[in-house]
Every structure is written in structure tokens, then in C-alpha cells.
Amino acid sequence: MDTVKRLYAAVRPHLAPLGWSIISGLIGGGIGLLFATLWLWAR
Predict the structure, then answer these.
(1) 40 is in which domain, residue-wise?
(2) The dihedral of CA 36, 37, 41, 42: what is its sign?
(3) Which residues of 1-36 are buried (b: 16+ CB within 10 A; e: fewer)?
(4) Which pTM value belongs to this model?
(5) Count of domains in the chain?
(6) Distance CA 4, CA 11 (A)
(7) pLDDT digits 0-9 by tens, 12-28
(8) In whole angstroms, what is the distance from residue 37 CA to residue 26 CA?
(9) Which of 9, 22, 26, 31 has its CA 20 to 30 A from that of 16?
(10) Which of 7, 10, 29 lies closest to 37, judged by CA?
């Protein structure tokens, strides 16, 4: 149990930036896809 806590303490600082990069990537990709679809549909 102590090993898990130590591992979690070591990994935790890296979780937030990774999570935010994934979230921002998904949002950016979704917006890009939406604009591409609208642009192609409007042509």
C-alpha cells in the first residue's frame, strides 16, 4: 500500500498537464472537424 502511495505521488504532477493536453487536443480537433465539415458543406 505504501508503494502505491509513493508511485501516485511520483506520477501525480504529470497527470494534470497530460490530461489538459489530451482535452485541448480533443476540443481543437473537434472544432477543426466541425469547421472543415461546414466549409465543405457550404461549397
Answers:
(1) 1-43
(2) negative
(3) eeeeeeeeeeeeeeeeeeeeeeeeeeeeeeeeeeee
(4) 0.49
(5) 1
(6) 10
(7) 888 888 888 999 999 99
(8) 16
(9) 31
(10) 29
